[in-house]
Each structure stands twice: as structure tokens, then as C-alpha cells.
User: Fold this.
Amino acid sequence: MKNVIGIGSALVDILTRIDDDSILEELNIPKGSMQLVNEKSSALIGEKLSKYESSMAPGGSAANTIHALAKMGIESGFVSFVGNDEIGRFFEESMNSVGVKPLLSHSDTASGTARTIISRDAERTFATNLGASMELNESVITEDLFSNWDYCYVEGYLIANKPVFKKTIETAKKRGCEVILDLASYNVVEENREFLNELLPQINIIFANEEEAKSLTMMSAEESLHYIADKVDIAVVKVGKKGSLIKRGNEVVSIGCNDVKVVDTTGAGDMYAAGFLYGLINGYDLQRCGTIGNLLAESIIQVIGAKMDESNWEEFKKNLKN
Assistant:
């Protein structure tokens, strides 16, 4: 069976539910976006949110997907940097616990955190301090790193370090890995549109939500699907409550959504990617791949954070067999 190595930020999510979006305006963070902040700003945001209850969970976009793939029995590895601190140990133990091969380097810099602010409508907004993750550098990205891996999963947030982002894609391709990219956030795409469009022909599979796709192509979701699919092997555009659109060659598939109670959308895209790739690795057709991706995404939006407990996983696996 094929396997997946992921590359991205090793973060711990600090999840906070708010009852009034005006606090986002106070913090000057656009709702639904991902903003990079330094350690001092992260602490100030923490102070502003201190009146609300918070919880911790291992996170990071690619790390979430890799964690879920391992949970489903797919051989997985993850490359990043963590600090020699409690948060770094928490992250590493979480990945180890589900069988991920943690290809982690350690640093004296504090581990990265993502303050995940959850609005009443379940939309999530991120204030991310990359911490030690920022130390991921070109020297780590060697051909040997990709030995014995079939897929390389790259999170769009890695584009904050363009040399590492580009070298990862080029080196993985050179070693024979198929490259998978999740576009991560509409504002990240907007800021790097030209650079991303130049790299598209080197990527095999693209995951994007509607806003990210539009930011990349300046077109509608459906037009974006065709534009992206002309340059990559498989294009996936998620269209919120309407489901997702998938295209490979001339084959186009539309996946609908089920009516579920949305508690928190954190990790929905990461879980969709994990479910889709699980199906692809198992040789399922695109309809089945998208259905599994959707099922896992629907499972995660019914809980707080991007990780499910064992009872939720059992429920998902039961539904997977139906």
C-alpha cells in the first residue's frame, strides 16, 4: 500500500470559542483568515481571549491530515521542527500515539502555536505563531528524505518560506513522489498567486476551498476546477455546504453534503484531504474518494478542534463500511 510523508508546521492549537465577533475587529484579524503573529502578539491575543474557556490540541494543517491518515492505517511520516518544551513534547507524543513516523528536528526556540478562534457560526480564525516551525530550512529537504515515500503532502502555509516550499516540491518530484498541495487559506493564496500559478504544473493533486480557488484563478469555483485540473492530475474544489467538485482528466465528479450540526469547522479541509487520500491509496474511484473525504470532514465539524476521540472515530469507521 502507498504511503504519505507530510511537511509543514508542527503546531499546537489553542482553541477558544467566542460569542461575539467584535473581538476579532479589536484584534484586527479578519474573520476566517489565518494571520501570522509573533510570540508577543500571540500572548496579547491570549490575554484578550482569557475571559473565554480554551483547550489545547495538536495541530498544523498538514500534521492534521497526516495524523488522520495514520489513524486510518496509512503509513505516514511528518517533517517539521519543534521546541525542546512541553508543547513540543505534547505534539510529538500525539503523532507517535497514532503511528506517525515523526521526522522532527528539535530547537531551543519555543514550539509553534495556533490560536484558533471559533465564532458562534462555527467559522474559525487563526492567529499563528510558527515558533520553532520557522526553522525548517532547505538543508533538511534532501532527496534521501523522500526515499521510500509515494506521496509528499505539502501545506500551503509553508509558502511563507518560499525557498523551502519550492525545494520541497522540486525535490519530492525528482525522487519520484507525487506532490499533493492544500492551498490552506485564501489570504495566503492572494499574497502568492503568481508564484503558485508558476508551480502548478509540478503538482499532482490540489485541494482548495472555494475562496482559495477563486483567489488563485480569479474565476468561479467551477471555472477554477477546470483551470486547475488542466495543470495537475487531480483538482478538488470544496464548495462549503454544497459539497465538493473533483476533476481528473475529463472526469468530473460532484459530491453532496449531509445535514449535520456544525460545532467548529477547524480541520474540516484537513480531514477531507485525509479521507480523499485514504480512498485514493486504496484504489477507489473519485466518487468514493470524495464521499469518504466528505464523511470525515462532516465528522470533525461536529466536535471542537481538529482531532476526534475514539468514539467519534468508531462512528466514522462504522459509517465508512455502509
